[in-house]
Fold:
Amino acid sequence: MGATTPQRAVSGSALAVGADAGEALLSLDDLTSLQRLTSFTAHEVRNPLAAMRAMVQLALATDDDDRRQELLRKVIYSIDDLSQFLTELVSLAGVQESMLVRLDVRPVIVEVMRLFAVQADLLNVRMTMRVPEGLPPVWGNAPLLRHAIMNLVKNSMEAMPRGGALTIAVKHLSDRNSVCIAIRDTGAGIPEERRTRLFTGVPDGRRGAGIGLPFVHHVITQVHRGTLRFESRVGVGTTFYLELLPATAPLAPGRPG
Structure:
């Protein structure tokens, strides 16, 4: 069963910020998004802080050295997760200024495969890369594109705690004038009730949902001016499709680059 996430149109009334007509306008939609993001950030930060406080209290109270070490390791992991979340949040706010260049996607995907090799081995996940020769370059930003793909691969890994298969395949879709990166897993699939909120950044109660998918959506659809969609079947797996502009012609006016 598939699902496609269309880009949201910018609409709504505008509120002037400051007295000068030349200053920026903030739309009601922007205010709503800001309120949602603020609530979401507070939720994502407060929960791990509370958990870390509880673990430190337990570590201080126990006389078992092994137990103390285990609790402190969990605190470190939680700090790393929170740091990653904040890094992504800052990136999400700043990606509009990123530059696009002619980019070969193969080295980007090779690096992602390398970074996840150890985790895949530990989880018994078989990783496969299918990138044919002769692909056209795309208009892209290597660090942002790599980070977006890493987020999707991380989600796929988490969906296969007992092992499985993950494939990253690239095709040139000449009829759609795009280069498509497909990230396919054999994991648990995405429940129907989560699909409409997948890219919104609205907390859905799922542990570790984070800002990752909203970040991916923004990087692909807004920065790279591409498309992002997915197909998922519960109990079978999920495939994300990232379609990027081939760099076979100059970028149209108004596109980043």
